[in-house]
Specification:
Strand content: 15-25%
Shape: globular
Largest sheet: 4 strands, mixed
Number of strands: 4
Oligomer: single chain
Mean pLDDT: 95
Structural class: alpha+beta
Number of helices: 4
Distance between the termini: 15 Å
Order of helices and strands: EHEHEEHH
Amino acid sequence: MANVVIYTTRFCPFCIRAKHLLKSKGVNYREIAVDGKAQLRAEMTRKAGGRHTVPQIWIDDHHVGGCDELMALERSRQLDSLLGRQSA
């Protein structure tokens, strides 16, 4: 199974939606909450090539992007492959 990291804030609806999709697939992920944590948000922004919105999601070393990109991977049936899973 892939190593998934997601930077979030507590009340972000896009973060909630992305986490829901990952949970529905049985994916364990490491969540890094950046609420009120300027240093963590700056780290996320640097790693994400300047993108400062949440969520920002990585699968292994691949920067997926945000919720829209995660959902697009799911719709195109590429997400399971990135996660190291067989497609259902």
